[in-house]
# Entry
Amino acid sequence: MQSITVFCSASDAIDPDYKHEAEVLGRWIGTHGYRLVYGGANGGLMEIVARCARENGSPVLGIITRHIIELGRSSRQPTELITTDNMGDRKRHLIEQGDIIVALPGGIGTIDELFDAITTKMLGSHDKPVIICNTGGLFDPLIQQFDRLRRQGFLRYDRPDLYRVVPDARACCELLGHENR
# Structure
């Protein structure tokens, strides 16, 4: 069984459109026979994607730090849990455990995870697809910054498959379905 790692927000204080994106992707993961790998928190898009994946038949692997558990922020959705001592180990496990990496909308934590996935791919540690769901153009400034870094010579590794950008979760699901036939 292939696994899809999803990076996303743990915040509940976000627009319902973003929550809908997590529902769409979670349902697709569950109904298409993938295992979900995610950050294991009990809020925001994390809880939604995990609940929807699990309700639709997906095994769910949560990867969470001891600190987040101590804060009472761990989800009950995972069918399996990996506990780490720090965020670095958590990110490493998130990347290692997935065959495909998807970034849904999120904040600093999501961007940090996305940077690690892209950097480790750039350095040859993995060759997994990295897909950015750019719902509502949320990641436009980040993508523009990547392009600027490339043009200015700071991003020397110019590889067209380093990451893919899609406009929303539906397009992400279509891409996942197309690439895994």
The longest strand covers residues 60-65. The beta strands are 3-7, 35-38, 60-65, 80-84, 100-103, 130-133, 164-166. The chain is about 45% helix and 15% strand.
